[in-house]
Amino acid sequence: MAPRKQPTNVAEFPILDANGLYAGQIRGDGNCLFNALSDQLYGHQEEHKTLRDATIAHMRLESDFYRQYMIVQPVRRNPKRKTTVAPAPLMDLSHHTEEELQKQFDIHLDKMGQPGEWADNMEVSAFASALNVHVRLWQADFHYTFSPRIYYVLDGASGAVDDRPILNIAYHKWEHYSSVRNITGPHTGLPLVSTNILPSPSRKRSSVERDDVDSSIMRASKRRSPHPLFDSDSTPTCSESSSDESNGPQLSQSNTDELGTPEPEPALDPVPRPKLVLKLRCLKT
């Protein structure tokens, strides 16, 4: 009997579905990040405490690096997962001494070392370095990868590649991590995720991409002068700006009389004829 096809979370993760993947069920007991990572490494969720301890030990060893990301008097995520959004913390613009940062960092590690304490992306980054693996984090329509801080030396060998494992986890908008698996299985044991990543079919252009397109349009339409570009067919006769743009914008005097009343436009010649317009400066008398 063929293995049962698992739910694909299409609505929440279209990019996973486009790549033949889905976010598997992971316990939401506060250990969800390390549960998901344990499922990726061992095929089950039972090694979450071992992975948490290894991550915290690495962060203590590399405290000079990780404590620079600490916020003194931080506001963490809402631990009760209410439907109301917790108020965002105010930006901390004050200067803190190394002692203050280290104290806050030690408090953070003591708290993070307790089972059931929620972890965030800083712990994902530390885990990648502690275990010397890559962690690909999937969200609704994009993904990014946390790589180890340990440099990978290829020893100059031709064709050598970075063969460190890539773990795949998904982050739900309701603040939960899941382990990513193939839709076709296996649904238990090691996930064995292998894919050529495809973009999400519903992915919108990023703000950077939109800015690039908008700026190119602006560059194409931008002119040095507010007047139309001059050529043999559009140059206004007897206009001060026709031969000198350095004097700034000037009102054209070609189509008004002395009282400022616009003169009627001449009738268009049905037969197009070549014409020559000289660019001359009018002399005011």
TrEMBL record:
Pro residues composition bias: residue spans: 263-273
Spans annotated as Disordered: 188-275
CDD domains: OTU_OTUD3-like
Coiled coil: none
Matches recorded under Gene3D superfamilies: 3.90.70.80
Gene Ontology terms, MF aspect: cysteine-type deubiquitinase activity
Segments forming domain OTU: 21-183
Listed Polar residues bias regions: 247-258
Domain of life the protein comes from: Eukaryota
InterPro entries referenced in this protein's UniProt entry, alphabetically: OTU_dom, Papain-like_cys_pep_sf, Peptidase_C85-like
Low complexity bias: start-end ranges: 231-246
Biological processes, Gene Ontology terms: protein deubiquitination
Protein name: Cysteine proteinase
Originating organism: Aaosphaeria arxii CBS 175.79
